[in-house]
Please model this.
Amino acid sequence: MNKEKIGHGLATGKIILMGEHSVVYGEPAIAFPFKETYISTKVEPETVMTLDCHYYSGDFSNIPQQLKSVKEVITQTLIALHKETTTLKITITSTIPAERGMGSSAAAAVSIVRGLFDYFDVPCPPEALLPLVTRAEKIAHGNPSGIDTAATSGNKPLFFIKGHPLETFPMNVSNAYLIVADTGIKGQTRAAVSDVAHLFEENKQKISKHITELGRLTRVAKQAILADDAHTLGNAMNQAQEQLQALTVSNHRLDELVKTARENGALGAKLTGGGRGGCMIALTDSNEHARKIATALEKSGAVATWIQPLGVKN
Ligand code: MEV
Model:
């Protein structure tokens, strides 16, 4: 047992700007690490294997089913490190609201893997990290595209295409501010992804049109970002929301907050992440206006809001 060492692992939340759901079908998506929120994991020596987190505190062998992906990632990481017999205390703390489309499950897995590698003083490059997190994400989400894993483990905005090498790009729209608002309702990524898959099987022609259109809008958004054009970006976000509604992944609360943001002058607004709850995002062109929209969203029932400037050099 390593008595001196404490291991630390960190991962951020993520925001998908454009391309959720269609990314599962090979279309591109734009996402960035959301540094306002994070998960950290502390690893210490202990005489029995224990886990301490918001949902559970106790013996590793009694971890509830709800935390199956956490249990899996710890087990698999210890196997990868050839340390299966070590006993540790693993403490996870988080400021990422769980199940709100901010990538909390991927971020938890990333921080755990990093914490365990750090504890054993083993470097943790993406080649070691990503397969372990992907395995946990398959348990948490069924058929993940990998975007959550990529965005929560990196520190740059991504133009992400499933199965392709990671492409970062400069998300630098001057005078653009993104408001992120939490509906307070747990999102249902797994169910939403699986329902879209069923719809796709039932009516390939109709659903693939929505998916292709989401891909096109994501490319439009990328060009708008590169051209420093917040208005075109906002427009693409509004159109994407319509497509996501057609895929049945929005819901009443998300639609209401999107409407509030638009009524208060947002350039664009849409859900972010898996949908059916979770968070929405809105775009505007001044910090002052962003605050006004955030206040309006809170009055309309958002339980938390964040403001993220996009006009920074990434
Ligand atoms: C979830 O954050 C994003 C989805 O597109 C699912 C995925 O890409 O794995 C809904």
In short: The first strand starts at residue 7 and ends at 18. The radius of gyration is 20 Å.
